[in-house]
Amino acid sequence: MTLGGLLKHLAWVEDYWCTHTLGGQSMPEPWASIDWSTAGEDWEWTSAAEDTGVELREQWARSVDRSRAVVDGLLAGDEETALSRTHGAWDGQAQVSLRWVLVHLVEEYARHNGHADLLREAVDGHTGE
Q1: Cβ neighbours of 44 (radius 10 Å)
Q2: For the chain, which terminus, N or C, has the lower number of CB atoms within 10 Å?
Q3: More confident residue, 122 or 49
């Protein structure tokens, strides 16, 4: 696990849950052209070693911008309806709501912030509060 891998994974998470699942759009690049069956399901984690820090931050920022646009669009009307309306997830195997996705994103970021803190602690030896 690396900080770059974490950041690229979070970019994928943003695009999968917001752009694809909530927005109903195809996954954008670089995800769209990846053959996941040969690249492996951890491609975003491992391929981050080939990217610079600037590239990873820009990729994540673009993914977040797309997510915000989708969420803002969904919330433009009746918020309660938007929060509870379901969307197909996991290739149609389940239904999730905007509310569920937003909570899931908070959980995902919290979990990976903890991972980042463990990586930092391994480098500097200082424990968090």
Answers
A1: 24
A2: C
A3: 49
